[in-house]
Amino acid sequence: MADRQNLANKAEEDAERRLIAEASLSALQIELREAIDRIAKMEKKERRRLEKKNRLRKKRKEQMRNELSRSLVVDETSVKVDNEPRDLESNEKPVMTSKEKLDQLLDPSVKKSRRSAFPSDQRGSVNTEMRQRRLKNRLLTNRGSVAVSSVYSQARTEFSFHPSINQTSMWKPKYDDHHNHKKMWKRMHQENEKIIRKKRLMSEQKLREELAACTFTPELVTKASKQAKNEPLDVKHLSLRLYQYADKFKHNRELMKEKYDFERGEEIRFTPILESSKTNKMLQTVRERKNVYDGLYEDYQKREENKQKLK
């Protein structure tokens, strides 16, 4: 039974995972289809734009050709020819018809020679290769933006949190008393008083809660309070009781001293003789004087012996 239940649970989990995977796959397919449709629309729009531009260019060329044909004279123009031999290498003809002039104006070699005279191309010239390259770059950028938007949409479906950012909002001051110092001073003092009052109320509330939570109230009993309870207060015999306390304290101190002396006597057997400081000083001065006199006498005897030897 347990194995069947586990297998059933696993089958349900697999089915749920499959459903989730299919849903995510369908969502991605929808997004991909939308992106492809968007790219197709953009390509179609770009193609239409190019076709329109080509049509305008052709129309402009036709207009220029018509204007040139109107401006040129149809009749032939006579040219005076000198009797001198004409240079055969020169391409100029003595008589040029309007058709020849028009062909010369529209000749691409003549156009190239004219363009080389200028630092930049004329307005009518169009470089198709550069335009195709630019178009490809634009399509690549559009595809990259579409891929980024698809990734962003996938992340938006996966993550449910979408924060709202108000970019147009501006900071507004809470108070308008920045220029009035007296008003600002009063406001700040009032706020400080409110804060102090709030802190005091919070501390009182905390103390009340702690006291309410603490049910045990201990009774501290000292030795003096016990004796005061046992012995009734008698003013007449108060002095006698105080003397008794003093005698008891003195007796305890003597016992402690005897005990200390006994313990020290067992440990240290040497008993030094202690003399007062005044007597010690007097004995030391007497000894010093005796030593001085003895030294003087010895010096005198030595001098006398030396005198006798010298004689």
From TrEMBL:
Residue stretches of biased makeup (Basic residues): 50-62
UniProt feature, compositional bias: Basic and acidic residues: 77-104
Region span, Disordered: 42-128
Name by which UniProt lists this protein: Uncharacterized protein
Species the sequence originates in: Euplotes harpa
